[in-house]
Structure formats: structure tokens, C-alpha cells
């Protein structure tokens, strides 16, 4: 801002020679918005049908959220710095570069940036879904429950001495206006439990986040190796990318959990069984570790999801998808037990 002001205010002749600069700035701002609208509109069929997908409401926000900033200003300041010493770029041209670029940055931040909230509201994109609200309500319930328990335990702390607990409670907002234990959010009747694709995607992602957190915990506890953890984490990342269509984090693990054809050949060949076991046990042990971790993580995540959302239709659908995902892992573990009891 200081550099732009110095360049413009320090040159009295700039607007005398270029009196239409302010008008050109407004036209340039409009052109920037139209050009972004043209690019997003042209590519909308591709953006909608490939990758993560894009709805028309999101496309509008994508157009309006084209804020300009540090990179553009840095480039314009570079032009200004090199101007004056070259016959190709005059000092006035360098100042105009900074003026137009700074003006566009200012207008996009002030106009676009400050009105995006209202556009989100007009497009009805700033409201929580029923599922997300249930999760939020459960989180508040858990926090309040913990606050109540902690406040009750403090009363028995002898080190605190004769404390005026009613005064303390009055200064704790979450406890001030509440009496008794907060009501569990799942005890109230819920409506709007729609199997909307967006809601399904949100719940699948929440389940997969829980699965990933369980993998981290297993790694910290030494239940899985770092190599297995990397593969399991990557499978979750791939599953999150495809959460709009289905729950499919098992797909990324199939290559590491399989019986190569030569295993059965070795079993039926003349090779000593101890030698066969030596060459196969490491691969099978790693695969079994992946399967066991997958099943354990999904079990933990399903329980967490049920705790957060309760007995809702959308949670039941995702939990059932999680159980189906684990069938291949269970089958593999059973096959190993039968074919390689040693």
C-alpha cells in the first residue's frame, strides 16, 4: 500500500497525461470478472463430470471468489522497479502497472471478498445439513457433560480451600444458565434425515477420518508397522476422493492383500514345506496385519459414528457400507487360516 501510494501520489503528472485511468480501472475490474466467468462457464461441463464434480452453485462461488493479491502485486512492483531505466518501459508505464494491479486487488478484496457471505446466503449454501447439526449437537453435549463433571470434581478438591462455588459458576457461561445434566441430542426426535448424495458423502468422509485416526493410534501403540501405516493411510486418502460415489477405501489395499498364483503352485510342488513357509510367511503376515488393522479401524469408526449421529438412516447406510467393505478382509484372513495353518 505504501509503495502504491508513493508511486501514484508522488507523480502529479500521471493522471494529467492519463486522465481516464480511473475509468479504465473500473472497466478492467469488470473485464476480470467476465473473463473468469467465461473460463469457468466454458470448463463447467468438464468440472461437473470429472474429478470431484462441481454444482452450478459452486461454480458461481468459484467465479466470484477470484481474489487477486500478493503474486499480482509482486509482479507489478517488479515491472515498476525495472521501468525508467529502459527505453521499452517508461516510468509512467511502471506506475500505471502498479496502479491498475493495486486497484484490481483492492476492488476484488473489498467488493468480492465482503459480499461472498451474502451470495452464499442467497444460494442457501451457508446452512448446516441435519446430519452435520446432529454431529454438532452431540459435540456440544459431550463438552457440556465434561464441564459438568469437572466442575463437580473441583468441589471435592481440598487444595482449593473454601471457594465460593456459586460465584465461580456465575462466571462460567456454559454452566451459568443450565441446571442438571444436558439432554442427549439423540433422545429428541430428528427430521430431515435425508439420504441426499451430499449428506452421504459427508458421513462417509467422517467415517474415513475416524478410520484414519484409528490407524494413527494403532501405529503409536505398535500394532502396525510404518510401512503398513503408509499403505493404510493412502487407501483412506483415495477413499475420501471417491466418497461422493461409494465407500471404497478397501480398493486401495487389494494389491497388498492377495494370494499370488505361485503360492498354490509351491504348495503342490516337490519343494520342502518348511522352505515354502519361509518364503510365504512374511508376505502373508504383512497382508494379515493390513486386514486386521482395516477391520479394527472400521469397527472403531463405526462405533464413533453411531455415537455422534445416533440411530439415523443415513448413518445406518454408511455403517452397512463399512461392514460390506470388511467382508473381503475377513475372507482373506479365513483363507490364510485354512490354507496356511502353520
TrEMBL record:
GO molecular function (one): sodium:proton antiporter activity
Keyword Transport: yes
Ranges that cross the membrane: 22-47, 59-77, 97-123
Record's bilayer topology term: Multi-pass membrane protein
All copies of domain Cation/H+ exchanger transmembrane, residue ranges: 13-120
Location, primary (coarse class): membrane
Annotated GO CC locations: plasma membrane
Any Pfam family the entry gives: Na_H_Exchanger
Catalytic activity of the protein: Na(+)(in) + H(+)(out) = Na(+)(out) + H(+)(in); K(+)(in) + H(+)(out) = K(+)(out) + H(+)(in)
Compartments reported by the entry: Cell membrane
Keyword Cell cycle: no
InterPro entries on file: Cation/H_exchanger_CPA1, Cation/H_exchanger_TM
Record's keyword terms, sorted: Cell membrane, Ion transport, Membrane, Potassium, Potassium transport, Sodium, Sodium transport, Transmembrane, Transmembrane helix, Transport
A GO BP entry: potassium ion transport
Protein name, as recorded: Cation/H+ exchanger transmembrane domain-containing protein
Organism, as annotated: Citrus sinensis (Sweet orange)
Lineage of the organism: Eukaryota, Viridiplantae, Streptophyta, Embryophyta, Tracheophyta
Amino acid at each position: 500500500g505504501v509503495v502504491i501510494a508513493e508511486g501514484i501520489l508522488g507523480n502529479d503528472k500521471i493522471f494529467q497525461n492519463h486522465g481516464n485511468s480511473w475509468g479504465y480501472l473500473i472497466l478492467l475490474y469488470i473485464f476480470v470478472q467476465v473473463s473468469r466467468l467465461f473460463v469457468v462457464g466454458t470448463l463447467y461441463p468438464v468440472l461437473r463430470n470429472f474429478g470431484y464434480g462441481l454444482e452450478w452453485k459452486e461454480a458461481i462461488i468459484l467465479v466470484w471468489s477470484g481474489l487477486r493479491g500478493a503474486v499480482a502485486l509482486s509482479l507489478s512492483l517488479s515491472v515498476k522497479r525495472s521501468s525508467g531505466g529502459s527505453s521499452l518501459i517508461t516510468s509512467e508505464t511502471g506506475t500505471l502497472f502498479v496502479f491498475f494491479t493495486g486497484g484490481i486487488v483492492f476492488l476484488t478484496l473489498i467488493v468480492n471478498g465482503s459480499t461472498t457471505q451474502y451470495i452464499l446466503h442467497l444460494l442457501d449454501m451457508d446452512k448446516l445439513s441435519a446430519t452435520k447439526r446432529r454431529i454438532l449437537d452431540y459435540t456440544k453435549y459431550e463438552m457440556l457433560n465434561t464441564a459438568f463433571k469437572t466442575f463437580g470434581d473441583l468441589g471435592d478438591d481440598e487444595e482449593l480451600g473454601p471457594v465460593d462455588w456459586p460465584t465461580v459458576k456465575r462466571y462460567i457461561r456454559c454452566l451459568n444458565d443450565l441446571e442438571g445434566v444436558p439432554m442427549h441430542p439423540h433422545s429428541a426426535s430428528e427430521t430431515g434425515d435425508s439420504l441426499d448424495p451430499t449428506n452421504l458423502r459427508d458421513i462417509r468422509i467422517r467415517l474415513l477420518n475416524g478410520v484414519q485416526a484409528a490407524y494413527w493410534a494403532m501405529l503409536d501403540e505398535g500394532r502396525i508397522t510404518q510401512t503398513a501405516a503408509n499403505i493404510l493411510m493412502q487407501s483412506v486418502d483415495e477413499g475420501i476422493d471417491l466418497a461422493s460415489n461409494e465407500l471404497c477405501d478397501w480398493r486401495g489395499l487389494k494389491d497388498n492383500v492377495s494370494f499370488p498364483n505361485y503360492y498354490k503352485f509351491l504348495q503342490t510342488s516337490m519343494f520342502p514345506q518348511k522352505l515354502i513357509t519361509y518364503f510365504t510367511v512374511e508376505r502373508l503376515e504383512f497382508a494379515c496385519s493390513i486386514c486386521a488393522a482395516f477391520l479394527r479401524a472400521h469397527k472403531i469408526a463405526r462405533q464413533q459414528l453411531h455415537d455422534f449421529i445416533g440411530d439415523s438412516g443415513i448413518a445406518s447406510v454408511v455403517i452397512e457400507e463399512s461392514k460390506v467393505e470388511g467382508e473381503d478382509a475377513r475372507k482373506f484372513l479365513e483363507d490364510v487360516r485354512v490354507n496356511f495353518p502353520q
